[in-house]
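Journal club prep — side note

Before the paper discussion, L.F. wants everyone to see what a predicted structure for a comparable chain looks like in token form. Sequence:
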Amino acid sequence: MSKIALVDDDRNILTSVAMTLEAEGFEVETYNDGQAALDAFNKVLPDMAVLDIKMPRMDGMDLLQRLRQKTQMPVIFLTSKDDEIDEVLGLRMGADDYVKKPFSQRLLVERIRALLRRQEALNSDEAGTEAPETKVMDRGNLRMDPLRHAVSWKGKDVSLTVTEFLLLQALAQRPGFVKSRDQLMDVAYDDQVYVDDRTIDSHIKRLRKKMRTADGDFAAIETLYGIGYRYNEE
């Protein structure tokens, strides 16, 4: 049973979403501000967190920043319809997805399940070792180990979220070949989950930023404007 942490200062949302997730078989913990959640996470981490952005004491952005210092567990942001800047910033900081308020609880459940499935696939030692997506992959200066969710560039470790890992893996599997945004959406999200181009672009921007922490000259991911992205092996 996966443990989901809900963090929101709206008690109606906490109650209704918690009831829905529990009915779906999840274990749920609720917190009405970021500081209370952080205090609990410092003791035991959940399998996933769903965070509101605007909260008292500690907002969702601050909480995410602190979480990313210790864990790459999946995180979904809840945002209001006017928080487009916050959505992009949140993705760049390391959120895996966002859902706009007011939202369909069924959609939220599907996004939670999609992220948990990807996390389990990356962490599972039972995956077939002959499958390309589970084998250690070397592409020039890049090394990716899916079973250990490990990435290194020129021998330096790089910490990626589940979504960032899957996007980099999809691009690096076929150097020189272009992946459209739609193809990358299929890699990172289930068919029933809709995301727009900006979401993929934000993930790619943050992926590049992280790779540049290992190498300031990292330029292996190329943007082809109006088409998509490709990985160029160095």
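L.F.'s comment for the group: DSSP finds eight helices and twelve strands in the chain. Keep this in mind when we get to the figures.
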